[in-house]
From TrEMBL:
This is Homoserine dehydrogenase. Pathway: Amino-acid biosynthesis; L-methionine biosynthesis via de novo pathway; L-homoserine from L-aspartate: step 3/3; Amino-acid biosynthesis; L-threonine biosynthesis; L-threonine from L-aspartate: step 3/5. PANTHER family: HOMOSERINE DEHYDROGENASE (PTHR43331). Residues 358-434 form the ACT domain. It comes from Paracoccus limosus. InterPro entries: ACT-like_dom_sf (IPR045865), ACT_dom (IPR002912), Asp/hSer_DH_NAD-bd (IPR005106), HDH (IPR016204), HDH_cat (IPR001342), NAD(P)-bd_dom_sf (IPR036291). It is an enzyme of class 1 (oxidoreductase).
Amino acid sequence: MTAQNSGQTASPLRLGIAGLGTVGTGTVKIIQNHAALLAARSGRPVAITAVSARDRMKNRDVDLSAYAWEDDARALAVRDDVDVFVELVGGHEGVAREAVTAALRAGKDVVTANKALLAIHGQELAELADAEGRVLRFEAAVAGGIPVIKAMTESLAGNQIRRVMGVMNGTCNYILTRMESGGLPYEQVFEEARQLGYLEADPTLDVGGIDASHKLAILSAIAFGTRPAFGSVEIEGIERISIDDIRRAADMGYRIKLLGVAQMTGRGLEQRMSPCLVPADSPLGQLQGGTNMVVIEGDSVGQIVLRGAGAGEGPTASAVLSDIVEIARGVRIPAFGQPAQALSVPQAARTAVPAAYYIRLALADKPGALAKVASVLGEAGISIDRMRQYGKHDEEGVAPVLIVTHKTTPEAIDHAIAALPETGVIAGAPVELRIEEV
Ligand code: NAP
Ligand code: HSE
């Protein structure tokens, strides 16, 4: 064994960690608790030299006394005794962006868990890293502890990726599964999630589908060799999902998931994040609570399913450490799997891939009502696969009707949904959800 491999005499990899919240303290704990293991695996010691957060006096349940303290993460990023700047602050502007930029310019490698930063400024940062001969790694940014970035950039490097999809926001999956298991309305479970501390400081990042879309944009870039294109993800959150839809979907053999799907078609790059129906007995349908799942389809490998904890101190810090050890080993992989300049500008395309759809209507109980609905669908070129009318009429004399269509285009569905209220036989707005083949 060489000195480098023994982990005893090689020079330590010196870390500066900015952000000492959930992920930052988790990272410090692993480095403290697994020092020998990390040194053995890295071929050199992994040592923290300096840390930074907003409030120096805050009790963080971890001993920081051996490390230098910086009040400003940007100062930490350029310290001479830091080889790798570990950004665990968050946010796509301000301190995180400035400190990462400063670190790369100062010749530091960077590890971050910041999906918003990468989805929005990933191209500029990857180009800077390449220009400076540094690496920018972010395993923790997508799906927490699931090693999806390394799976895609390394293990699946020999594949043309056809499609990548998944449930990448644990909070939304928790809310949807808890609504179903408890028979509870959205508002009540949202409040429960808030009290459990699951929601981001700005909860619309979670329930509005934005956080998951940041992650999807990062995976798309790696999968298709394109610049991260968060701005062209079609995003819809879970706010309009009712307990009624969850129950009715279950009756028809489906579960509702906030599903991200990215695929390259003849028209361009389709990226969408939206609540979809998936078969209840499929791996995605079975996914409970805060767990994440990413499904990758490659031309040679077929379908790969990765499942695990998508958030939390331990799982996310585990992913941060995988990047740190990779750098300590001397492995240097371009941010999105190829030099940033070689990433193409994607042609953004609205989703056009046909799918079956679930439609829920409140239908007036009068002669010819159903025929009018069928006629609107027929005129839009939509064929009905299954239909169910529930006998229970409310005080307005309307009854819920569920329709599952044969495969059709999103354009045809939009057209039909816009036309349905004009029939005069439905109350309220119809609900439509795509049924994704998984
Ligand atoms: P957090 O618990 O809110 O911690 C944020 C840390 O950043 C805190 O220590 C805070 O300091 C520090 N900070 C905030 N503003 C700062 C500033 N202007 N200058 C210096 N330090 C500042 O956040 P987190 O959950 O650990 O998330 C960190 C990153 O990991 C984010 O990018 C997040 O999206 C990502 N991530 C999180 C998870 C998760 O499960 N939590 C999973 C995947 C990825 P104080 O402690 O002094 O306030
Ligand atoms: N808010 C995110 C989630 C945290 O719920 O999945 C992990 O990125």
